[in-house]
Amino acid sequence: MATGEHLSSSGGFESSAFGAEDGGMEVLANGLGVNTSEVEARVDDGNIQEAESSLRGGLSLNDEEARALLGRLEYQKGNVEAALRVFDGIDLQAAIHRFQPSLSEKPPSRRSRSRNESPHSVPQHAASLVLEAIYLKSLSLQKLGKLNEAAQECKSVLDAVEKIFHNGIPDVLVDNKLQETVSKAVELLPELWKQTGCYQEALVAYRRSLLSQWNLDNDCCVRIQKRFAVFLLYSGVESSPHSLAAQIDGAFVPKNNLEEAILLLMILLRKFSLGKTEWDPAVMEHFTFALSLCGKTAVLARHLEEVLPGIYHRCDRWNSLALCYSCAGQNEVALNLLRKSLNEHEKPDDFVALLLAAKICSEDCLLASEGAVYARRVIANAKEKDEHLKGAGLRFLGICLQKLAKAASSDHQRSLLLSEALKSLHEAINFDSHNPDLIFELGLQYAEYRNTDVALRYAQQFIDVTGGSILKGWKLLALVLSAQRRYSEAEVAIESALDETAKWEKGPLLRIKAKLKEARSLSTEAVEAYRSLYGLVHAQRKSFGSFRSNSQIENDKANEFEVWHGLASLYSSLSCWKDAEICLEKAKALMPHSADILHVEGVMLEARGQLDQALAAYKNGLSMDSKHVPCKVSLGSLLWRTGSMSLPAARSFLSDALSLEPTNRMAWYYQGMVHRDEGRMVDAADCFQAACMLEESDPIESFSSIT
């Protein structure tokens, strides 16, 4: 029902409605009244000018105020088109011109006005009436589907407010109706631009709404901030650079959509924590998505810890924190949180926690046994609607059993664990035959135990499923082909991978390419491949400069180390001692405590007959890494050569090497030589046979290097 206007004690308009004797509504202003039934009758007959004249004369209003009031009456009745015809007659610029002097003048002193009187009361109420009319005009155009015109009209409301209030809307002494109209217009404008498809204009409108002084209430500001953050995250529209005028010295200025969205969401979360607005779980969901995109899950964990108690169940909070810390590489912290969540007094059968715990444990040989327990609990409890999770449980069980097989104390136990691991992985793939992770795990496991034909089939299937977009599939394919002595085909695979791979991810492929050239005795081409790898590392360092993350810095150092280490090994095999020493020094400067460097140094010393120094280098390598297999094998072979007194020690080192890497052919070979010299011919024959079989399927580098 339409609401009327009557004169307030300060001379402005206030809303009021009451019945007249003829059943219509009466509008009061300036001590005068007009019955709306008479006005509405004239509008219904199409006599808009007569209706305006009736209001203008009856209430002592000017043209714009009369049209604004009449248009509002029509809009409230639902006569959108009639209201629009009335609103079209309002001259907004003329109204602004009239309001500006009154609202920009210095307000009278406190002593010269009554206690209940606010400065500029009449001009503010008049301005409120006209600006509300333009806002309603925008809504009318929106309802009629004229979105672009609606946005322009809504924008004109805000432009008018900025002209009237040069320094922004004051925090106090402002008409409530005017403030309500401004707040609604500020909130509506970006939504209208989005509906028209003018996304850059929407971005500008959002920023204008948050950076200009509109005196918005907290709830309105929260709604705008949330909508803007959602728009930045999901619209797919890259924002234009921020205006320098809007930047404060020393303030953080977002560089892109993602940073700006994260900043807005952090502000919202801060408001939640201070109790300034009600908790909204959607904000945390958007914040999780945004930080996950840029890999800042440790930051997300800190914000989850700051969420007030009672919002999340403690187990859910522990699980979310564990996922964050796991993604940030802090697996120990994550696993401790999951152990608390899976306690028998909490939620011991929570699938999310069990699967995440199994995944973390599957990546560490020392935790593989615990991981197998978690995986078996998933398999046992995954029934009916959760049965699809059984495949994930079987996969992690297979990986954990594979880790346990590598650490098995006997060949029989290793064989049983390996058989069970393969069985679990095959059962898992029955649940999800197109799961690329499962396909890769099966291919890698068959490759490590030298069933290269089956491994090759899975490697090719993985590349088909992923479209060749994942690097480790190409690496597996190339290494399997090298194990089959198909070096030319392996090079073709690497070249294809280089074409498919992003520039900064080509390092591992170039290293494999160099080793393939080395395996074919193409030393010059191998050196050229290492030179390409070094050039890539140097270009990446120069490109990112000081903006590199810690992980990028470590990755660059590792890639450069691989270059010098590979060249040192290559020159050493060619007896180019001077070149080898130069490369070795450069590698040592990057990683002075590397067992790999000490091993190459020992090989060089041994080749030049400096056996004592070589022995010391191998021992130093093991002091750096007690599980370094090449040092154990070289130390065992050197001890074997020194005579019968050292055979027990040699056998011990070689046995340790084989327990860590059962497919090391040189360890089997030297173990056979030790058995032969000690008179155990049957054992020696078995070792020689194993070495011979492994030599036929030995890749250019260990399959374990893929992961």
UniProtKB/TrEMBL annotation:
It comes from the Eukaryota. Residues 101-122 are annotated as: Disordered. Keywords: Glycosyltransferase, Transferase. InterPro entries: NPG1-like (IPR043376), TPR-like_helical_dom_sf (IPR011990), TPR_rpt (IPR019734). SMART domains: TPR. GO terms for molecular function: glycosyltransferase activity. PANTHER family: PROTEIN NPG1 (PTHR44102). This is UDP-N-acetylglucosamine--peptide N-acetylglucosaminyltransferase SPINDLY. It comes from Acorus calamus. The lineage of its organism: Eukaryota, Viridiplantae, Streptophyta, Embryophyta, Tracheophyta.
